[in-house]
Write a structure and sequence with these properties.
Strand content of chain B: over 45%
Shape of chain A: globular
Shape of chain B: globular
Strand content of chain A: over 45%
Oligomer: heterodimer
Mean pLDDT of chain A: 91
Order of helices and strands of chain B: EEEEEEEEEEE
Order of helices and strands of chain A: EEEEEEEEEEE
Helix content of chain A: under 10%
Largest sheet of chain A: 7 strands, mixed
Structural class of chain B: mainly beta
Largest interface: A-B, 26 and 23 residues
Mean pLDDT of chain B: 93
Low-confidence stretches of chain A: none
Distance between the termini of chain A: 35 Å
Radius of gyration of chain A: 13 Å
Number of strands of chain B: 11
Amino acid sequence: DGGITQSPKYLFRKEGQNVTLSCEQNLNHDAMYWYRQDPGQGLRLIYYSQIVNDFQKGDIAEGYSVSREKKESFPLTVTSAQKNPTAFYLCASSMSRDRDGGYTFGSGTRLTVV
Amino acid sequence: AQRVTQPEKLLSVFKGAPVELKCNYSYSGSPELFWYVQYSRQRLQLLLRHISRESIKGFTADLNKGETSFHLKKPFAQEEDSAMYYCALYTGGFKTIFGAGTRLFVKA
């Protein structure tokens, strides 16, 4: 069953800690994305990657880092530098040559700072 | 500036009534627009894209370049249409801008 798997579903972080959110896809998609979803603000792009070993900052990259060592995986690290990390994080993927096909999304990770 | 605006945070209609979810965009190039839907306890998923000119689950959306709009319409709303709807604009370079979303509530 092809798709995107995000884990964990819920994550609690103490202030000052770094945490890593997992995103894995078996769709053979070239491009992967991380979005942050806040109430009333829609989805905002954090980072995206078109191919392995390459990634670009989105609109709100400060306080976040990513890696793309494998085509299937695009983990997101929320660092202690992120001022307001409590949010719902969505991972997505798409075929790079078929952007008109839209995105496939994961089920999301809800991060809460305690 | 590139922007997607969904003016209604919440839209409530009765079952069987027509529904229109508004989306306006600001973009200097040739727009590629999408509607995504998120049903309760399900993941966000693509509903339709303007380039396909398709009808999905009875919904249609027409791109109006003169009014810079891409409103989502359905002639007869069903209770199962209740969900969060997002309009999205592909701006090139693998970047897509999403609107803030409209929650549709269809009353029995």
